[in-house]
Write a structure and sequence with these properties.
The structure holds 2 protein chains of 2 kinds. Helices cover 69% and strands 0% of the residues of chain A. Chain A is mainly α. In chain A, α6 packs antiparallel against α7. In chain B, α4 runs parallel beside α6 and α5 packs across α6. The two termini of chain B are 35 Å apart. In chain B, 51% of the residues are buried. By secondary structure, chain B is α/β, with parallel strands linked by helices. The longest helix of chain B is centred in the middle third of the chain and has 14 residues. Chain B has a domain of 158 residues: 3-Layer(aba) Sandwich (Rossmann fold), CATH 3.40.50. Chain B has a 6-stranded mixed β-sheet with strand order 6-7-8-3-9-10, sandwiched between helices. Chain B is 38% helix and 26% strand. The chains are: A mainly alpha, B alpha/beta.
Amino acid sequence: MTRTTVEKHAGIDSPVHRLDARVKIVSLLALVVVCVGTPRGAYGAFAAYFALLMLVAAIARVPAPYILRRPLAIMPFAAMTAVFLPFMERHGGTEVSGLAMFGGAMGKAYLGAMCVILLSATTPFAEILRGLERLWIPRIFTMTAGFAYRYLFVLRDEAARMKRAGDSRGYGGRWLWQAGTIGNMAASLFLRGYERGERVYLAMISRGFIGVENAYGPARLQKGDYLFVLGCAAWMAVARGLA
Amino acid sequence: MNTHSVVSIRNLTYAYPDGTKALDSVCLEIKKGERLGIIGPNGAGKSTLLLHLNGMIAGNGGVIVCGLRAEKKNLKEIRRKVGLVFQNPEDQLFCPTLFDDVAFGPRNMKIPESVISALVEKSLEKVGLAGMSPKSAFHLSQGQKKRAAIATVLSMSPELLALDEPTSSLDPRARNQVIRLLEELGGTQIIVSHDAALLKKLCSRVALLSGGKITAESDAETMLGNLPLLEKHGMM
């Protein structure tokens, strides 16, 4: 995965991409919450949430396969947690099979991941951060997230170069006794990251940085932004009503 | 101190916390509008010297920059007046977009947002990156990154540009672009570099820093032509 693939669709020009990041964050977060709160058996409601996401993706001209396939990446992690559900003690005498519980949790995880993927496919990362700041998320969090995103791929490239340097000297890294080398590589990556952190901090204070504070004032929402929030809310209300 | 000096360093000595001496009685004057080159072998203390210019580190001795002594109460003003450009642009471009990177200094200076966007565009235009502000540094070429790093300090209208290896790891074309840019920008500059062509073209004076001491100082041609001297200090 490269940064280019993460932001592949964020640069498209569409009505959804032009929306204020705040309304997309709030609407999609609301959908996650509503989805989690919907009873497991309400298939109609889940179908409606799914349809809403696909509709927004279609308006945004984000290819359907992308929206459908991308969330699969997190499913193994969701499965690792959900796999214990069938074996847990059930309270309140609910007559649901363990498998149905597992399926329900996985379905909700999938829809939740779709929301995140849709947000990142319709909003450049910098816009998401700015939107969060305007939603009164403390700047220290958005700044940290910004650094993580900025240097994640730099670090990934560094790791790839290190591996290549090892491989070109005959290191395959396939055997258990080679694990020590991987440990050394991880340690030196950590140290390099740490040193880079120091240098970045120097670069920050030499441009007068003294501490974080919220810098951006609120920006006005447009008519389309309100329409989007209201539309999503109405859709969710109707879908939830169906359940 | 000479009134025309932008930088005046007297007997500056600095040792790392572990006791290693990095700078040893360094004296240096830079006049207004002058470009001073600094050469020296690896580990000679060149970058450490640059870090003294805006009070990032403080050694023993006097450092006066733009008429201000590099000490705590002047740090804010000094950091506005000294534009320090680090060797690795990856360290200097840490924001999600180029705009935020170039706006970082002005925002810290509490310049109103309404003025900042014009300032950012102007700075990017000066380094030949007009219209690139929504991009992330991640998407730039190495040469563009180097120039973008220069833009991040131009937006603070510095009185002194201090550059650490501005042409390192660049291909010839990108390198020439940076040299031309520094020539156009003018003003007072202090350039740490191993790039002989850059030093000859831009710097009226070159100082050789070796083992934490300024061991020689002359015009660029003389310095770079003094092969025995360069060889003695591991520069050949």
